[in-house]
Amino acid sequence: MASKQILVVPGDGIGQEVTAVGKKVLDKIAGKFGHTFTYDEALVGHAAIEATGNPLPDETLAKMKNSDAVLFGAVGHPKYDNDPSAKVRPEQGLLKMRKELGLYANLRPIKLFDELLGASSIKEDILRGADILFFRELTGDIYFGEKGRKNNGDTAYDLAEYSRFEVERIARKAFDSARTRRKKLCSVDKANVLETSRLWREVVQKIAPEYPDVEVEYQFVDATAMLLIKDPKRFDVVVTANLFGDILTDEASQIAGSMGMLASASIGDGTGVYEPIHGSAHDITGKGIANPLASVLSAALLLDISFGMKEESELVISAVDKLLKAGFRSSDIADAGTPAEKILGTEAMGEQVLNFI
Ligand SMILES: NC(=O)c1ccc[n+]([C@@H]2O[C@H](COP(=O)([O-])OP(=O)(O)OC[C@H]3O[C@@H](n4cnc5c(N)ncnc54)[C@H](O)[C@@H]3O)[C@@H](O)[C@H]2O)c1
Ligand SMILES: CC(C)[C@H](C(=O)O)[C@@H](O)C(=O)O
Ligand SMILES: [Mg+2]
């Protein structure tokens, strides 16, 4: 029996809706296993800008640093998406959090539940057995380099930078993980064009001999985008840079059936942050139909990685499996054969997870 302090940071849009479900799941687990989880909440993103003018208030950051783990929702608002000139933006809160907490490794498991084989537009025989773990570098690359305008604003630039140290630490995490899985690592870059990618490949090649039991392959990012759809089973662990990892994992969500199914863990030097890979989804915000399973599965990652609660984590994942086997679907993972009464909204999906726990 453990005592843990969890910070819940729902953020914006459907982040609010799905994180409420993730929190209920953590609470149910605490009750079932006799743990004491205490919760606090904090603002980020548009919600924080409205309240304080700052997308990541100092108070939020301090609470994050003082928590045992953070359950995060999403940030974003159409107001900023459609206004390229906005100087203060919700996404700055997310990026600053990642940098300030040293969250350099973003684990994005592409877990395909058998029951969802038919939910994807990819053919079943290509998908069956796919199981990929992405290690996306999260605190470097074009996201964090110098950016600006010149020539009276007519030219814009974003500098991509990586240091040997930054590449090595994420690569080691990926190698270590591959050792515990199917012992295959694919390092994805654009070394035929980018200097940062040539350093990336050089570093991975240099440390690879320390992991003789892991079979390493190198792929360019454009080819990887194609291979993920053509033959997802060829991948086990994938390690890649910040921007490539962002794009490839949204693509890979279609292997799992929906953006609403993909969880993530951001880890590094201090408190771990657990969040769906999806955003605030303005198009469905407030409709009560968002799939909460990415948040539920993020809670499962939190239990496993930050708290070392393997059994608790597996119980959450098996509850998701059981609710899918019982035929329940949110609308994003329903198909033509799903009876109307089995298509549930966000809260009702959450109730089923609790029920199966
Ligand atoms: N980590 C984050 O906080 C994060 C991630 C991505 C995008 N964003 C922000 O979110 C906003 C919207 O961006 P976007 O539309 O490109 O990406 P998005 O991930 O919010 O949505 C993409 C599509 O997937 C659907 N979708 C996403 N999550 C779903 C869920 N749980 N259930 C059902 N359907 C789901 C949406 O309805 C939408 O059609 C932007 O402001 C963007 O900056 C934030
Ligand atoms: C909102 C945005 C800054 C963020 C990213 O690009 O990292 C998002 O797309 C994600 O995947 O978490
Ligand atoms: Mg993204």
UniProtKB/TrEMBL annotation:
Pathway: Amino-acid biosynthesis; L-leucine biosynthesis; L-leucine from 3-methyl-2-oxobutanoate: step 3/4. One of its GO terms (molecular function) is 3-isopropylmalate dehydrogenase activity. Its main location: cytoplasm. Its cofactor is Mg(2+); Mn(2+). Keywords: Amino-acid biosynthesis, Branched-chain amino acid biosynthesis, Cytoplasm, Leucine biosynthesis, Magnesium, Manganese, Metal-binding, NAD, Oxidoreductase. SMART domains: Iso_dh. Residues 5-353 form the Isopropylmalate dehydrogenase-like domain. Mg(2+) binds at residues 222, 246, 250. Coiled coil: none annotated. Substrate binds at residues 98, 108, 136, 222. GO terms for biological process: L-leucine biosynthetic process. The record marks 143, 190 as: Important for catalysis. Binds 1 Mg(2+) or Mn(2+) ion per subunit. Its EC number is 1.1.1.85. It catalyses: (2R,3S)-3-isopropylmalate + NAD(+) = 4-methyl-2-oxopentanoate + CO2 + NADH. One of its GO terms (cellular component) is cytosol. It is an enzyme of class 1 (oxidoreductase). Transmembrane segments: none annotated. It is found in: Cytoplasm. Homodimer. Belongs to the isocitrate and isopropylmalate dehydrogenases family. LeuB type 1 subfamily. Catalyzes the oxidation of 3-carboxy-2-hydroxy-4-methylpentanoate (3-isopropylmalate) to 3-carboxy-4-methyl-2-oxopentanoate. The product decarboxylates to 4-methyl-2 oxopentanoate. This is 3-isopropylmalate dehydrogenase. It comes from Anseongella ginsenosidimutans.
